[in-house]
Amino acid sequence: MDEAPDSNAGYFYGRTLREYQSMFGLDLEALRGKRVLDVASGPASFAAEAADLDIEVVCCDPRYALDPVELRADGERGIEFTRLAYEHFPAPLSKRFYTDIDDTIAHGQRALDHFAADFEQHRNGRYIAASLPEIPLPSRSFDLVLCANFLILYADISPGIGVPALDYPFHLSAVEELLRLARGPVRLRPSHGIFGEPHPYADRLRVDLAGQGHQTRFVDTEYELTELTRPLLQIQPGAIRPG
Ligand SMILES: C[S@@+](CC[C@H](N)C(=O)[O-])C[C@H]1O[C@@H](n2cnc3c(N)ncnc32)[C@H](O)[C@@H]1O
Fold first, then answer.
1. Per-residue pLDDT averaged across 36-65, rounded?
2. CA angle at residue 104 from 8 to 50, to 5 degrees?
């Protein structure tokens, strides 16, 4: 029998609320009292910090099935891998958001520390062990759905880090699932290659999702990892949807 394809990929590395705010162009004041879904959320501290601002964030990641000690160790490894990745990054890193690699990694460490404490307290509430393309939550239950640093980034065609199971059909099913869960926009990043080049999967998604009645557009944000990676891909669910 064939083995199930391994779609669980990516370093367990997460970002802070300030990074999420910048990456996704979030208006935190407007999100007060709203429900946000963060898929492939890793050890981000976005949910923990957002709770203090009266924003309810539900997080999904397959690694939340691990116990807190294993997760912390996974997070420390993620920080090491990410430092190495940035030290050998093929495109010039921007100084617009982070001052240097140490500053980038300090953000990751703060996020991990905050996440680890919050996960111990809320592991049966805001953190759900689940994998795209199937998230076991009710349809249209979130005002905003986010997915950062998983889709496109680890696509099977990404040189060096691509994962075979993350092919185009996986991407389409994953985004259809995010749209099922959303009653407001879905925002994805990255949306381009690391040199700012158009990504074939983002372009195919735009065509296929437009064919299903959804509206897609690239939205520029302040956040830069390199000077070329600013836009996110926003999908506004169409009015007529099954389910
Ligand atoms: C680099 S982290 C991104 C964390 C966070 N979104 C951020 O930008 O700070 C990628 C995450 O994707 C998760 N992941 C891997 N396979 C997944 C899948 N099939 N569905 C959802 N998440 C997945 C990994 O466990 C990892 O935590």
1. 98
2. 70
Name the residue of 22, 26, 37, 61 to mutate for ligand 1: max ligand atoms within 8 A of Cβ.
61
C-beta 148 within 6 A of ligand 1: yes
Average pLDDT over residues 179-203: 93
**Contact (CB, 8 A) for 165 and 7:** yes
Q: Is 88 exposed, middle or buried (0-12, 13-18, 19+ CB in 10 A)?
A: exposed
DSSP assigned state of 23: H
Looking only at Cα atoms, what is the longest distance across the chain?
A: 52
What single-letter amino acid sits at 54?
A: D
**Does the domain spanning 17-236 belong to CATH 3.40.50.150?**
yes
State both tokens at 89: 């990054």
In tens, the pLDDT along 177-189 reads 999 999 999 999 9
Residue-wise DSSP of 127-176: EE--BTTB--S-TT-BSEEEEESSTTTT-TTSTTT--TT--HHHHHHHHH
The pTM for the full model equals: 0.94
Q: 63: Cβ below 6 Å to ligand 1?
A: yes
**DSSP E strand stretches across the chain:** 35-39, 56-60, 127-128, 144-148, 186-189, 215-219, 232-236
- Please answer whether residues 82 and 107 qualify as being in contact, where contact means their C-beta atoms are separated by less than 8 angstroms: no
Q: What is the CA(8)–ligand 1 centre distance, in A?
A: 8
Residue nearest atom 16 of ligand 1, based on CA coordinates: 8
Please, what's the b/e burial string for 33-67 (b: 16 or more CB within 10 A of its CB; e: otherwise)? eebbbbbbbbbbbbbbbbeeeebbbbbbbbbbebe
